[in-house]
Amino acid sequence: MNILITGGAGFIGSNFIFHMRKKYPDYNLICVDLLTYAGNLSTLASVLDKPGFKFYKADIADRQAVYDIFEKEKPDIVVNFAAESHVDRSIEEPEVFLRTNIIGTEVLMDASKKYGVKRYHQVSTDEVYGDLPLDRKDLFFTESTPLHTSSPYSSSKAGADLMVQAYHRTYGLNVTISRCSNNYGPYHFPEKLIPLTIVNALHDKPLPVYGEGINVRDWLYVEDHCKAIDLIIHKGEAGEVYNVGGHNEMRNIDIVKLICKHLGKPESLIQFVTDRKGHDMRYAIDPTKIHNALGWLPETKFEDGIKKTIDWYLNNKQWWEEIIKGEYRNYYDKMYTNR
Ligand code: NAD
Ligand code: TYD
Questions:
Q1: Does the predicted model carry a pTM greater than 0.85?
Q2: Atom of ligand 1 nearest to the CA of 157
Q3: Is 33 one of the annotated active-site residues of the chain?
Q4: What is the pairing mode between strands 53-57 and 28-33?
Q5: Domain limits for position 95
Q6: pLDDT in 10s for each residue of the chain, 339 residues
Q7: Is residue 262 a part of any domain in this protein?
Q8: Which atom of ligand 1 is nearest to the CA of 182?
Q9: Residue 210 in domain
């Protein structure tokens, strides 16, 4: 079995590669990643020169490069993680989100069609459903919730999802889509809330919380997401969408306070800053379909997952120190200085 994984040098893609190598040692895994600011080859160091693993540095929106790789590697399954993934960056510079997230998806599906791929899986997000009000705890996103996006990021992901559904209906491409809630765990790029808070707290730097910190996200340990995708690519039904989430809703401010507590840092580090434009209030997934159809359930409780994650950042300082001393500094200054 040849599985082509795009975006495998990023957060979730790399965790998926580790999961698949462990569970299916006979599979050939082919990783395609452009190594943007979010991609790190050092993350893949433990597998890079191992048999059954290949790495290509390429842009998924570069048609010729993608066709050449498909021609050579003949993938049976494609799992597309590659994306521009940060909402705040999408607010600053939307264009690259359209190119990678929409055009890149289209190119990958054209290649899948041309080279007879048996299953194309699109890794999407719950953000395509927009947000839910804080005072309606009874509401959750189901697979039939209408797409109603807020940010250039979520809009580009929704655009890609619609193209994936079009390729199924129009060309009969065998596709599946997963829409997952917020992930956390090892190798999470420190522009996102949880790793940013851990890294800043370790340096006794201010912990920026947007607005009042009352926005709610539904956090899932990354390994649980990888297991869901593993099930979907093997057993999911063509043309279907599967929501993935763990009924683990938390307010941002409570996450930041919890990290302070674990690290023994004072809450006085917390700094409320100007809110994100168009900030979604609440995400909450109803995972009934994937549970009933494929038997998936989240396995890692938040209190265990967050402890494992914090320990990982404590034990892998070199990984994130390399990142924060590079281009990241300019990004951080631009986004947070005098905010
Ligand atoms: P990430 O930003 O950590 O990684 C993205 C990876 O894609 C990087 O390695 C980057 O180099 C690569 N990439 C970017 N543009 C590329 C291009 N044009 N060609 C080839 N590679 C390119 O992202 P992540 O958090 O791991 O998210 C992975 C996927 O999961 C994304 O599609 C995202 O929308 C989705 N998702 C993320 C979350 C989350 O909480 N992080 C939740 C639900 C869904
Ligand atoms: P983020 O990790 O960027 O994920 P997403 O926007 O895709 O949900 O942000 C999670 C939540 O944390 C979101 O409500 C925005 C908020 N946030 C802060 O309060 N401060 C920060 O510095 C960051 C990066 C995010």
A1: yes
A2: 34
A3: no
A4: parallel
A5: 2-186+218-247+282-305
A6: 999 999 999 999 999 999 999 999 999 999 999 999 999 999 999 999 999 999 999 999 999 999 999 999 999 999 999 999 999 999 999 999 999 999 999 999 999 999 999 999 999 999 999 999 999 999 999 999 999 999 999 999 999 999 999 999 999 999 999 999 999 999 999 999 999 999 999 999 999 999 999 999 999 999 999 999 999 999 999 999 999 998 999 999 999 999 999 999 999 999 999 999 999 999 999 999 999 999 999 999 999 999 999 999 999 999 999 999 999 999 999 999 999
A7: no
A8: 40
A9: no
Q: Which of 33, 59, 106, 126 is catalytic?
A: 126
Q: How many domains does the chain have?
A: 1
CB-based contacts of 190: which residues, under 8 Å, 6+ apart? 196, 198, 199, 320, 323, 324, 328
CA pair distance 117, 71, nearest whole angstrom: 11
The pocket around ligand 1, CB under 6 angstroms, is made up of 6-7, 9-13, 33-36, 38-39, 59-61, 81-85, 100, 104, 123, 125, 157, 180, 182-183, 189
CA dihedral over 103, 119, 67, 28, signed as positive or negative: positive
Residue 43 φ/ψ region, left for φ over 0, alpha for ψ in the -120 to 50 degree band, beta for the rest:
alpha
From the list 33, 59, 106, 127, the catalytic residue is 127
Query: How far does the centroid of ligand 2 lie from the alpha carbon of residue 145, in Å?
Result: 23
Q: Does some domain include residue 24?
A: yes
For residue 165, which of 147, 190, 182 has the smallest C-alpha distance?
A: 147
Check if 126 is active-site: yes
Annotation marks residue 76 as catalytic:
no
Residues in CB range of 133: below 8 A, 6 or more apart: 139, 281, 282
Residue 260 falls within a domain, yes or no?
no
CATH of the domain at 45: 3.40.50.720
Residue nearest to atom 22 of ligand 2 (CA): 208
What residues does 30 pair with on adjacent strands? 4, 54
Ligand 1 nearest atom to the CA of residue 180, by list position: 43
- Residue of 30, 32, 21 whose CA lies nearest to 3: 30
